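User: I've been trying to design a sequence by hand for this structure and keep getting stuck. Would you show me what you'd pick, starting by listing the structure so we're on the same page?

Assistant: Good idea, let's start from the same input. This is the structure you sent:
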C-alpha cells in the first residue's frame, strides 16, 4: 500500500501542478516594497473575533466538562484532520489516494475549519511551496512573524502571488467533483459546519447554555485552530533545526502544536513535500499519519508515497545542518 520512493526524481516534481511554471531565474525585485493595501473589513473582523475569544475565556470554568471535551477534542481535532488530511496532504501534494466516501466525509467536515475552500487553499499552498519566502509566497516569512502568521490575510496579496498562481495547472482540482461541490456551497457549508453544528450539539444534547455553546466549542475553538495553523507559516518558518536542508527557511519545530499532528516537521515537509507522513518518524508525534494508515487498513485510502531511508540520510548529509547527529 505504501509506495517508497528511492530518490527525489521518483517524486515526480510537484505532481504535475507547478513544475512547468517554476522559473529558476526568479528572484526578488530590488527596490522599495509595494505599499501595503489594508483590507479594513478583515482587520476589524479578525480583531473582533480574537478579542471576543479572549474575553470569553472566563466562561471555561462555568462550562460542563463534556462541552469542553467536545470543543477541544471533536471540533479541534476534526477540523485539524480536514486541513492536514485533505486540503494539505491529499489535494495540495497528492501524497496518497482516497476513496470517494472518505473524500466526501472530509470535504463536508473541512468546512468546519473555515480556512478558505479546498481550491483556494491548495492553490495558495502550491505557490507557497514553489516560491517560499519570495514575493509570490502568500505568507512570505521574510516579511516578518506577524505578516506570515495573520498579516497576510489583512492586506491585498502581492501581485506576484496572483500572477504565479494563475499559471498553476489546477485541472485535477477542477476535475474533482467533491472539490467543486464544496467550492460552490462553501459559505453555506461553513455556516453549518463551523458555526451551527459545534454550537447546536452541546446546546441540544446535554443542555449546555447557548452562550457557552456559542463561545467555547465554536468561537474559541475556531480562533485556537486558526492560530495553530498559522504557526506553521510563522514559527515553523523561523525557529528550529534544518536537518534536511540548510538552504531553506522552514524548520523542524516540534513545539508548534502541529507537532502532534505531524505538521511541525516543516524542514522535512518542504524538502520532501510528497511524503504522505510529512516526517520520517512514522506515527511518532504524528497523529495524522496514524489516521491515514488506519484509513489504508480499512481500504479507504491507498498509494501512500514515502521517501526511502537512504534518500533521507543522503539528503541530511549533503544539505542538512548536522543536527540529526545529535539525535
Ligand atoms: C486561513 C488560511 O486562515 C490559512 C492557511 C494556512 C496554510 C498553512 C499551511 C501549513 C501546512 C498545513 C498544516 C495544516 C495543519 C492544521 C492543523 C490544525 C490543528 N493564485 O483573494 P483575493 C485571484 S483563511 C491565483 O480577493 P486580494 C483570485 O482568484 C481564514 N490567483 O485577493 C481572484 O481572482 P478573480 C478565513 C489568485 O484582493 C483575485 O486574485 N478566511 C491567487 O489580494 C483576487 O483574490 C479569511 O480570512 C493565487 N494564489 O485579497 C479570508 N490568490 O478576481 C481571507 C488570489 O478572477 N482572504 N487569486 O476571482 C481575503 O479576504 C483575501 O483573499 C485577501 C487578499 C484580503 C487576503
Ligand atoms: Zn505543504
Ligand atoms: Zn511552509
Amino acid at each position: 500500500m505504501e509506495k517508497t520512493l528511492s530518490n527525489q526524481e521518483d517524486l515526480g516534481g510537484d505532481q504535475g501542478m507547478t513544475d512547468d511554471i517554476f522559473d529558476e531565474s526568479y528572484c526578488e525585485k530590488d527596490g522599495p516594497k509595494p505599499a501595503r493595501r489594508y483590507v479594513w473589513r478583515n482587520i476589524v473582523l479578525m480583531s473582533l473575533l480574537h478579542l471576543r475569544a479572549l474575553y470569553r475565556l472566563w466562561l471555561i470554568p462555568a462550562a460542563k466538562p463534556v462541552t469542553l471535551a467536545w470543543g477541544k477534542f471533536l471540533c479541534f481535532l476534526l477540523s485539524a484532520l480536514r486541513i492536514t488530511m485533505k486540503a494539505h496532504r491529499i489535494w495540495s501534494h497528492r501524497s496518497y489516494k482516497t476513496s470517494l466516501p472518505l473524500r466526501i466525509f472530509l470535504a463536508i467536515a473541512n468546512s468546519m475549519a473555515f480556512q478558505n475552500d479546498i481550491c483556494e487553499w491548495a492553490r495558495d499552498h502550491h505557490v507557497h511551496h514553489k516560491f517560499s519566502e519570495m514575493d509570490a509566497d502568500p505568507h512570505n516569512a521574510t516579511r516578518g512573524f506577524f505578516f506570515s502568521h495573520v498579516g497576510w490575510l489583512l492586506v491585498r496579496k502581492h501581485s506576484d502571488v496572483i500572477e504565479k498562481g494563475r499559471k498553476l495547472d489546477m485541472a485535477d482540482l477542477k476535475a474533482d467533483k467533491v472539490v467543486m461541490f464544496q467550492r460552490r456551497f462553501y459559505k453555506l457549508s461553513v455556516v453549518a459546519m463551523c458555526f451551527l453544528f459545534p454550537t447546536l450539539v452541546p446546546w441540544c444534547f446535554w443542555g449546555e447554555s447557548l452562550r457557552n455553546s456559542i463561545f467555547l466549542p465554536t468561537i474559541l475553538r475556531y480562533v485556537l485552530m486558526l492560530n495553530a495553523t498559522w504557526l506553521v507559516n510563522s514559527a515553523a518558518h523561523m525557529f528550529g533545526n534544518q536537518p534536511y536542508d540548510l538552504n531553506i527557511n522552514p524548520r523542524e519545530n516540534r513545539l508548534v502544536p502541529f507537532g502532534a499532528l505531524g505538521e511541525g516537521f516543516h524542514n522535512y515537509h518542504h524538502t520532501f513535500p510528497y511524503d504522505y507522513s510529512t516526517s520520517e518518524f512514522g506515527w511518532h508525534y504524528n497523529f495524522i499519519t496514524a489516521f491515514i494508515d488506519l484509513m489504508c487498513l480499512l481500504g479507504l485510502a491507498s498509494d501512500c508515497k514515502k521517501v526511502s531511508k537512504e534518500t533521507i540520510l543522503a539528503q541530511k548529509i549533503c544539505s542538512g545542518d548536522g543536527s540529526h547527529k545529535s539525535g
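That's my pick for every position. To get oriented when you compare it with your attempt: Residues 232 and 264 are 7 Å apart (CA to CA). The longest helix spans residues 65-92.
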